[in-house]
Amino acid sequence: MKISIITPSYNQGKYLEQTILSILNQGYADLEYIVIDGGSSDNSVEIIKKYADRLAYWISEKDSGQTEAINKGFKKATGEIVGWINSDDILLPKSLERISAAFKKRTHPDVIFGWTLRISEDNKILFNHFLPKPSLWLAKRGVFYFGQQSWFWKREMFDYLGYLDERCHACMDIEFIMRQFIAKAKMDQVPQILAGFRQHELTKTSQNGDIWTVDRARLKKKYKILNYRTPKKFAKIVYGLTKLINGNYLRQYYFTKKWQGKTLKDFIN
Length: 269
What we know:
Spore Coat Polysaccharide Biosynthesis Protein SpsA, Chain A, single chain, alpha/beta
């Protein structure tokens, strides 16, 4: 099963090589890896060229932002399964094998979710929330948590859903998942940590600003989705009970006790 991974890149040379290697070193035979750089002025292009012979496609040119870059990659992709890993995030070892196996299950899912580890800029483990599978009911009530880095879907979904909404510069992932929900896509969860989200002061997630305000307003208008910072109390209770029943809180407790502050290398090995 061919899997296409897209990495949008812009001036993240500090982390880019680790991102690229985390994907290329998966050892997955049917990988198509595409890097779309937005015209970086740091050493990003130099790093990309270093691995150019192992990439299916790469380009460095100005664009309107991350969402356009991701779409450029998706339009080049030929894999049955697609996803994206940002230029400061990582895929954990054997994740592509697990993703492939998940899509081959009898349930024939259209979308799969795994868990996403939080790591620091110096590769220290911060935490893992062990999130349950997201749902439309919870999302519309302001409870919408998932790890984009561990989210993959069938490329054929672009045929009837279109690509990411390039008007969104912060919540493009949430907007696309809402379309998947509405299309009644079959969603399965892989109970594995598949990827790592790097938390540092320059990530969009670490910053508030106009792009978040504008995107959240668009989501609320289009899908009647509430701001996840002010969810409905009943929805929060349902979500908490789901995590409790699934054993997610217990997993989180033991994981934090064992791994918080340890290095990513220790965790992988």
